[in-house]
Amino acid sequence: MPKVHDRGGWPNDDPVDHSEHKMEEWERQVDALNGVLGDKGLKNTDQLRRAIESLDLATYESLAYYEKWTAAMEMLLVEQGVMTTAEIDAKVTALKQEQS
Amino acid sequence: MAGDAAARFKVGDQVRIRVGVPPTHFRTPEYVQGKQGKVDTLWGAYPNPESLAYGGDGLPAQPLYQIEFAQTDLWRDYKGSVSDKLLIDIYENWLETI
């Protein structure tokens, strides 16, 4: 079976969904963050792709395009010791509390 | 970014795509693996993404080719025209001589 991202003719040969949507603000932010991390030498396109490809099938299928980028950027930052998963989780929890 | 590493193949050569699914990052989709195609274009040599993906320098650079396939060779029961082609970029380390 092909790897999770290798979608030619898989899982079926149905027509590709070409529908577009207007970019959300968070999607623009993810794209901008990706650019900044690239400029800082903390990731390149090949590393981002490698990280996205390492997602398990269930996660890969459940995440939207820019959510995959986000998951991959987190992986690469943790891998390089820039930040820890615990630090990221703590910040997310704090932000959620601010919103509620 | 194209370098001038010596290219093993030239435009018009028939080639076969190597079969393999390494656990690491690679750019050769499975649906072309084991298939025979023709060198359409030599783009030049580029840093190897299989190294760049892990923070490596991508050297030595890999010649990158555009390979042409007949769609009827790639897909069983292909419903389009028999003259439909697929053009896809493949690095030299995935190409085999026929």
Features:
A: 100 residues; mainly alpha; Cyclin A, domain 1; 5 helices; 0% strand; B: 98 residues; mainly beta; SH3 type barrels; five-stranded antiparallel β-sheet; 2 helices; CN_hydtase_beta_dom_C (chain B); Elect_transpt_acc-like_dom_sf (chain B)
Report on the architecture of this protein:
Chain B: Pfam families: NHase_beta_C. Chain B: It comes from uncultured marine microorganism HF4000_APKG5H11. Chain B: Residues 3-96 form the Nitrile hydratase beta subunit domain. The complex is a heterodimer of chains A (100) and B (98). Chain A has 100 residues and is mainly α. Chain A has five helices and no strands. In chain A, helix 1 (25-39) packs parallel to helix 4 (65-79) and helix 2 (45-53) crosses helix 4 (65-79). Chain A is globular. Chain B has 98 residues and is mostly beta strands. Chain B has one domain: SH3 type barrels. The longest helix of chain B is centred in the middle third of the chain and has 4 residues, at 49-52. The radius of gyration of chain B is 14 Å and the shape is globular.
In short, what is this structure?
The complex is a heterodimer of chains A (100) and B (98). Chain A is mostly helical.
How far apart the termini of chain B lie comes to 29 Å
Tally of DSSP helical segments of chain B: 2
What share of the residues of chain A does DSSP label as strand, in percent? under 5%
- H-E order of chain B: EEHEHEE
InterPro entries (chain B): CN_hydtase_beta_dom_C, Elect_transpt_acc-like_dom_sf
Domain Nitrile hydratase beta subunit (chain B): 3-96
Protein name (chain B): Putative Nitrile hydratase beta subunit
